[in-house]
Automatic annotation (TrEMBL):
This is Ubiquinol-cytochrome C chaperone. Residues 36-173 form the Ubiquinol-cytochrome c chaperone domain. PANTHER family: UBIQUINOL-CYTOCHROME C REDUCTASE COMPLEX ASSEMBLY FACTOR 1 FAMILY MEMBER, UBIQUINOL-CYTOCHROME-C REDUCTASE COMPLEX ASSEMBLY FACTOR 1. Belongs to the UPF0174 family. It comes from Pseudaminobacter soli.
Amino acid sequence: MFQRLFGRERHNRTITDALYAEIVAAARQPYFYSDWDAPDTPLGRFEMLGLHMFLFQHRLHDETGAAREIAQVLIDEFFADVEHSLRDLGIGDMGVPKRMKKLARMYYGRTAAYGDALERGDRAALGEALKRNIRPDSESWPQVDFLAGYVMDADKLLSEQPSEAILAGTIRFPVAGAA
């Protein structure tokens, strides 16, 4: 019995690790930073990783069972990764909880704005939300329309991927700048 339990847990961990690696790889596409001017800073990387985590979570939103469990494991992994990054940046034990609360509020606020714009198919509103969150320091961000198009394409591509493939640890994101 213990073999089955531990074997299953290891198999599930392999699946969630593979999915998380794909989400991180998608968020780290150099094109976002070099051509679309996303800030290549710790906060900018948080924004891009959060955006891709949102896309994954949005895909699994209506799923049940194992898919919901995987979605929860991955959101937990995302926040553990964020906490680890804060510590790597030199934030001490006293400052981490306060910053984690702030980053969690930021993430969930963004998911509401991005989700609303995607549900309405409103590329302009999505672009405004992306600019407000990713480049709040800029008066204008001409490349935001490209990123909004990417997000809409990613949402469509993810929705076309069978749940069985995702539950097996496979997910595909578009290549930034390919279209």
